[in-house]
Amino acid sequence: MRALNGVRSASVLREARTPADTQHHRLRGSRAPQHVEVRPSATRKAAPSLQDGEAPIFDRQRRLKLEKSEPVTELNVASADTYVMKKLPEVTLAFWIMKIAATTLGETAGDLFAQTLKVGYFLTTIALFLIFIVTLVIQLRSKRYNPFFYWTVILSTSTAGTTMSDFMNRDASADYLSDGATSLGWGPQGLGWGYPAGATILTSILIAIFIVWKFSGLTFSIRDITTFRGEALFWSAILVSNTLGTSMGDFLSDSSGLGYAGGALLVAGLLSVLLALMRVPVVPNVLLFWIAFVLTRPLGATAGDFLTKPIAKGGLDLGTAGSSAVLLAILIGLMGFAHMQERKKTVPRNELLPQKS
Q1: Which residues contact 220 (CB under 8 A, 6 or more apart)?
Q2: What is the reported pTM?
Q3: Mean pLDDT for all residues in the chain
Q4: What pLDDT band is residue 191 in, cutting at 50, 70 and 90?
């Protein structure tokens, strides 16, 4: 009985020992007291092991403090005792399908407001930029990845990018007015810089963002962006790249002679080349990702124009309203599917807590 009590006392002393105690003895140059290590009883229940797709937990004390009612999604472990929720999606085939759907909808919706409804480039750009700010704030304040939040911001950048590009590159001449209209609403309707000048300015801004991003020491990889600054830089690059992509798409459709379908096929071919390069360790995948991310915007722009423009100009003449409604339904369906997939990865917090002995 005395031996058993001694072992229990040693176990209590060992559990009470903290890293601070050990560090204290090291600083004083003395040897930390030795304690008897007692193996746990074979009858004691161990904490449940994690299954595939569940989030790893390394800090037992932090784990005990987690609220049982709040779900856990995919965690990115920054260190042994620091956890950061991933707020950006995994880059999969579904990601690219949703990106193309969002950029195509951004093109048709932007033209719907600015041209079909004759709100004009100026007012539409201001309104859509404000919507982008609101959706971005919601995304930045979110604690975890939410497909509806993320793709709503992508859609707002695509739609705002459409009218911003048109406002920079075009003017209020009859070439850009529909149904014999003489104006596009209140305010200046375009700066008339043209596609080359607009693309040069936007490319310079995008390069400047990446330079700032590089010197910040933060990663360019979407799967590893976990800080507020990193996400802010990410969304700044997204807005500018979508605006630049619109300029590229409009140039291919209007000025290159390829037409809407030809421009879309050209961009699709370039994306296929990038996909092939990903299998060859020649160009970093992060660089290929950002090139592909920019190119999906002109693909969406040319595809959107192909759906909405008159047949005489090489389009299908489906109209901006009808095309936007169908694309919106598709995108919402894809967001719902992504949300269901994300919920499958979710693990209730009480399942991660150790069972009582």
Answers
A1: 210, 213, 214, 286, 290
A2: 0.70
A3: 77
A4: confident
Which residue has 């932007």 as its token pair?
110
CB within 8 Å of 167: residues ≥ 6 apart: 121, 122, 125, 189, 190, 191
Q: Has residue 10 got a pLDDT over 60? A: no
The whole domain housing 149 covers 94-345
Q: Is the pLDDT of residue 352 over 70?
A: no
What's the Rg (C-alpha) of the chain? 28
| Dist CA 293 CA 158 (whole Å) | 12
| β-pairing verdict for 82-85 and 75-79 | antiparallel
Average pLDDT over residues 7-24: 46
16 lies in a domain? Answer: no
> CB 78: neighbour CB atoms within 10 A?
12
Does residue 53 form part of some domain?
A: no
Q: Tell me the two tokens of residue 267.
A: 């961009």
Q: Number of folded domains in the chain?
A: 1
Percent of the chain with pLDDT over 70: 68
Residue 68 falls inside a structural domain: no
Would you put residue 354 in left (φ > 0), alpha (ψ -120 to 50) or beta? beta
320 lies in a domain?
yes
Locus of tokens 């310079």: 204
DSSP state of 112: I
Residue 186 has what pLDDT? 53
